[in-house]
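Per your request, structure below.
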């Protein structure tokens, strides 16, 4: 940090220099001027952050000098030093947002306190301004990337980058960090983007923005040598790794004219980013594309993977998945593009298989939710073992839900089991839901099959069993209410209606009939 002392009396300058503990406030350079005109030259060339100025100077006064600085937008912090305590001077100094108004002779404690206050205020002011500038640049870059690439937005964006104003080279590069392979884990993109933006801004290297609704972070990078950009981007990825525990990879485009070449550069950078090898244990930056074969074919998923579900052999299912992950492990290359393509093919066949099973089981056909679990480890790296575990878990859940244990048993046998269950449990509050759960099949499939195989509805069959049981109990002399409760129909009135419907007479009439009497 730099300071400037302005006073037309050199002894005063000497005293101020001796009184202030410059090192304590991290001020390493102190300039001296005896006039405002002399000070203007230093201010333009050196841009000191702290100014200690007398008010009565030859020519331009200290107040007029600072007013000129404020009109130019300077945020340098000013401490006025004067032998006069005139109200008009103090009032003007306050209007110019000065830190302090000190009276001569200067005291060590007061001047050091003023310098400390000035340094703190400068840092706060610059910090707020930098935060605002950084946010403005980020918002403008985001708007440009999502607005159809309007040149007027790009012009506003570029003018918001302080270091770009001094550059004559108007070219740039575009980078992409993709987190698509981790989107299933609900990775918080914006904290990562903010970290990237902060790093690039601090290093005067560029800007970062989340690209649309994707899990991609786009980087606008000032043009430079490839090796220098690689080094900067690796440092960025290293910081993200330390902060978020993620091993990420970046794709960087070639040099393009801005803004005309940005569209093509973005596609190039994205292509590189989704082609990075996720087996890498360290972050990487790619400038060249390496062709990678697909992970597998849709035919393998359709003809080999899903048929393995029906065999009810856990070992065989796992070995089938391991066949695929083993292939990936042997190639040593797995990319985001491979995983995206595989997920798309897997979800397509998965939905097709679930819809067909819903129809077979007589369930209401509903479009299933897509499988979104990440195939990669939480830190972003690919692991064949993790891939196998994730895929097997999903397939096993599908088997459990859509391939009941009784799958493969004939419908007649299932209906016989239903009959036996009802005969043994007719006295309980038996529901269709409970019965279908006991048999491991859907309610609609059970109802349809029972009617077809047995020739009557499940409810009618259960009612017949209950009324047959009630006949024997009526013979024993039990009250009708007790008989109703004993056969699983606790409502006596309802029992009477059901009994009459099946037997053609009420329970009391049937009791008399069995005794040989007639009504």
């Amino acid at each position: 940090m730099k300071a400037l002392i302005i006073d037309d009396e050199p002894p005063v300058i000497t005293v101020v220099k001796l009184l202030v503990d410059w090192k304590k406030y991290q001020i390493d350079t102190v300039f001296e001027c005896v006039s405002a005109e002399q000070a203007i030259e230093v201010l333009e060339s050196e841009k000191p952050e702290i100014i200690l100025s007398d008010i009565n100077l030859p020519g331009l006064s200290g107040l007029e000098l600072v007013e000129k600085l404020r009109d130019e937008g300077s945020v340098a912090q000013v401490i006025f030093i004067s032998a006069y305590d005139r109200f008009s001077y103090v009032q003007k100094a306050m209007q110019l947002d000065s830190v302090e108004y000190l009276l001569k002779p200067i005291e060590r404690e007061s001047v050091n306190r003023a310098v400390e206050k000035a340094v703190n205020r400068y840092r706060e002011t610059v910090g707020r301004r930098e935060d605002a500038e950084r946010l403005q640049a980020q918002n403008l870059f985001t708007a440009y990337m999502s607005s159809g690439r309007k040149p007027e937005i790009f012009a506003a964006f570029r003018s918001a980058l302080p270091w770009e104003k001094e550059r004559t080279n108007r070219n740039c590069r575009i980078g992409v960090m993709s987190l698509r392979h981790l989107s299933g884990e609900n990775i918080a993109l914006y904290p990562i983007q903010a970290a990237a933006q902060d790093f690039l801004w601090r290093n005067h290297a560029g800007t970062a923005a989340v690209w649309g609704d994707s899990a991609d972070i786009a980087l606008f990078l000032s043009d430079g040598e490839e090796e220098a950009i690689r080094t900067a981007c690796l440092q960025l990825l290293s910081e993200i790794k330390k902060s978020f525990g993620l091993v990420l990879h970046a794709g960087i485009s070639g040099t393009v004219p801005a803004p005309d070449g940005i569209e093509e550069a973005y596609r190039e950078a994205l292509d590189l980013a989704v082609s990075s090898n996720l087996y890498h244990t360290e972050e990487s930056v790619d400038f060249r594309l390496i062709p990678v074969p697909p992970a597998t074919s849709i035919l393998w998923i359709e003809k080999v993977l899903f048929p393995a579900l029906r065999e009810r052999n856990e070992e065989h299912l796992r070995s089938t998945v391991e066949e695929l992950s083993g292939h990936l492990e042997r190639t040593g290359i797995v990319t985001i593009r491979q995983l995206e393509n595989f997920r798309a093919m897997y979800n397509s066949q998965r939905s097709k298989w679930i819809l067909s099973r819903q129809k077979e089981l007589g369930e209401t056909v509903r479009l299933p939710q897509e499988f979104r679990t990440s195939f990669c480890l939480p830190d972003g790296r690919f692991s064949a073992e993790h891939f196998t575990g994730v895929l097997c878990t999903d397939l096993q859940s599908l088997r459990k839900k859509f391939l009941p244990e009784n799958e493969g048993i004939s419908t007649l046998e299932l209906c016989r089991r239903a009959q036996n269950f009802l005969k043994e449990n007719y006295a309980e509050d038996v529901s269709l839901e409970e019965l279908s759960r006991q048999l491991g099949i859907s309610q609609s499939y059970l109802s349809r099959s029972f009617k077809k195989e047995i020739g009557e509805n499940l409810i009618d069959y259960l009612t017949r069993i209950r009324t047959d049981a009630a006949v024997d109990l009526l013979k024993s002399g039990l009250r009708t209410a007790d008989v109703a409760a004993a056969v699983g129909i606790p409502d006596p009135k309802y029992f009477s209606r059901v009994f009459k419907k099946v037997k053609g007479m009420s329970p009391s009439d049937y009791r008399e009939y069995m005794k040989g009497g007639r009504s």
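The mean pLDDT is 88.

Regards,
D.
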